[in-house]
Amino acid sequence: xxxxxxxxxxxxxxxxMDLVREQGTEGLTTRALAKKLNCSTQPIFSNFPNMxxxxxxxxxxAYELYAERTFASMQSGKYPPYKASGMAYIEFAVExxxxxxxxxxxxxxxxxxxxxxxxxxxxxxxxxxxxGLSYDQARQLHTVLWVLVHGLAVMYATGFQEYKADxxxxxxxxxxxxxxxxxQNKEGVVK
Length: 191
Description:
The protein is mainly α. About 70% of the residues lie in helices and about 0% in strands. The chain folds into two domains: about 10-65, Arc Repressor Mutant, subunit A; about 80-105 and about 115-190. It has helices spanning about 10-25, 30-35, 40-45, 50-75, 80-95, 95-105, 115-130, 135-155, 165-185.
């Protein structure tokens, strides 16, 4: 009798991530996963109570990967930290389009929203301190830049526009400096 091959929990998670990368979230089904692992569905349900619990882990792993890349970008010194976080978001969308869609392009109707208020408040405080902005100006600057970064990332992730790092970087710089100048001039602050 040949030895049985043990399918581990980590094998299942890795194969699930691969399926999402290859086929999007719709591709992560019990049958597709069993086929990818070359096994029955038994090892899947021996390790996970249901597919929803596995999908939650895949979501969390995708977010961990995004967070690691963002942190590395912010630490690299290639861009100022705030810009680096935006560029990392865009680059994640380019390099991992299906994981980006899983994290940031899913239907959230009727679902609990992530509360990133504390993180946004930190960013707004830094923008105020560094640029002499009021709370409302810093909040508006951050919101507009977030919309811009997300819009660019979606265009790149969906193939609507071809990604060019230098072009994306220039767009972010122009938007940041343009809005910053507008707010600083409105209050008479000169930097």
